[in-house]
Design goal:
Elements lengths: L15 H15 L6 E2 L11 H14 L15 H13 L9 E4 L2 H7 L9 E6 L3 H9 L3 E6 L18 E5 L11 H14 L2 E5 L25 E6 L1 H4 L7 E4 L5 E2 L2 E2 H12 L5 H10 L2 H27 L4 E3 L5 E5 L6 H12 L1 E2 L1 E2 L10 E5 L4 H17 L3
Parallel strand pairs: 1-13, 3-4, 3-5, 5-6, 6-7
Antiparallel strand pairs: 2-8, 7-8, 9-10, 11-12, 12-15, 14-15
The structure holds pyridoxal-5'-phosphate.
Pyridoxal-5'-phosphate binds next to helix 4.
Length: 398
């Protein structure tokens, strides 16, 4: 009889957002006339920018003519897009070669697939609170997970710990869910730690475009020594509104070698076996994000979300509630008022003011007592949610 991957039995019952969706669905069915404002899931609300739309349209038109038609695309990415992304890094003073860039269908897909490069016996260190896919993908692979809790004391950006040495290390900066960013100094400590122990850092830079503070690194490759210990996974989902269009990229330096195996060469081998490349049309659209005009347009969209963040931060500031994020990230992470648990606060917000957020506990047990707001909603919903939140916080006397 076929033996399935029994590790699936070790996954928690439901994925965080599925659990939230169930609760919201039940509430809506029982209260069909009530308007629910969603500040939960991190999905964008603004459409793709003009430059991307015209590039996508051009891509469609190319596919209509024999002379410009594209069949299968190169598995590791279209040369024009790999070059555009590498140029983007080089423009920031980071030395990345075109063939160190791999085009993907998004960071989630890549975060799962990239684990093919690692032995099952490798351990994975996850700094919590964390994006749930890090833990779940490693549970599915049957790996030992080392949890490293972060908190207010370390600004949710802990330093490496010699008692928690691991083969794979996840770092997400700007962080989902806390919105915290690792400073150059802290990242250097992690890079030195990884090189010393032969670990590999999986650096999730999905939110790099939201960084405002000039001293904060956008890429792990801004740190000396990262080319021998890190892989960077990035996405256009939040940078440019590609959540439903799907495009991401991964940087694997050729200098990343363990046990004589070159990770860049292994990934080429993996991709040429497991994919037939990303759609030409989508890659054409993605390349527009890296043009001067494209950068200008996506910045305008990001500024819109930043304004949402300011609206929500004003409410929290006014009530003296401490939070991280909002400035260099599209998430605001705060302590639930009056010592409430995070699901307790979730239920209160849903029932009293019909606002949906994300309970911190869903990102690891150390997230209990915290809550996350996403700033990706519309201006109207954010303003209304802020007003309702203000009323609720006043009424429970925070
Ligand atoms: N990494 C982090 C930290 C995220 O928050 C998300 C999506 O919310 C992803 C990766 C996945 O991004 P993508 O849409 O490219 O799959």
């Amino acid at each position: 009889m076929t033996k399935p991957n029994m590790n699936y039995a070790n996954l928690k019952d439901s994925y965080l957002f599925f659990g939230i969706a169930q609760k919201v669905k039940k509430y809506s069915e029982e209260n069909p006339d009530k308007k629910i404002l969603r500040l939960g899931i991190g999905d964008v609300s603004l459409p793709l920018c003009k430059s991307v739309i015209s590039a996508l349209t051009e891509g469609v038109n190319d596919q209509a003519e024999k002379s410009s038609f594209h069949g299968y695309m190169p598995e590791c990415g279209a040369p024009f897009l790999r070059r555009a992304i590498a140029d983007f890094y080089r423009g920031r003073g980071i030395n990345v070669a075109d063939d160190e860039v791999f085009v993907s269908s998004g960071a989630s897909d890549e975060l799962g697939d990239i684990l093919d490069l690692f032995d099952k016996e490798n351990s994975a260190l996850v700094i919590e609170p964390a994006y749930p896919a890090y833990v779940d993908a490693n549970i599915i692979a049957g790996r030992k997970i080392i949890h490293l809790a972060s908190g207010i004391a370390d600004g949710f950006t802990p330093e490496p710990d010699e008692d928690r040495i691991s083969d794979i290390i996840y770092i997400c900066s700007p962080n989902n869910p806390t919105g915290a960013v690792f400073t150059r100094e802290k990242l250097k400590k992690w890079v030195d730690f990884a090189n010393k122990h032969g670990s590999v850092i999986l650096f999730d830079a999905a939110y790099e475009a939201f960084i405002e503070d000039e001293s904060v690194p956008h890429s792990i490759f801004e740190i000396d020594g990262a080319e021998t210990c890190a892989i960077e996974i990035c996405s256009l989902s939040k940078t440019a509104g590609f959540t439903g269009t799907r495009l991401g990229y991964t940087v694997i330096p050729k200098a990343l070698i363990r046990c004589g195996m070159n990770f860049n060469a292994m990934w080429v081998r993996n991709r040429t076996t497991k994919t037939n490349g990303v759609s030409y049309i989508i890659q054409k659209g993605g390349a527009a994000v890296f043009t001067e005009q494209g950068r200008k347009e996506i910045k305008e969209n990001i500024a819109y979300y930043k304004e949402n963040a300011k609206i929500l931060m004003r409410v929290l500031d006014g009530c003296g509630i401490e939070y991280t994020g909002g400035v260099n990230a599209p998430y605001i992470w705060f302590k639930c008022p009056n010592g409430m648990g995070s699901w307790e606060f979730f239920d209160l917000l849903l029932e009293k003011i019909r606002v949906v957020g994300t309970p911190g506990e869903g990102f690891g047990s150390c997230g209990d007592g915290y809550f996350r707001f996403s700033t990706f909603g519309s201006r109207e919903d954010t303003l209304e949610a802020a007003e309702r939140l203000q009323g609720l916080l006043n009424s429970i006397k925070v």
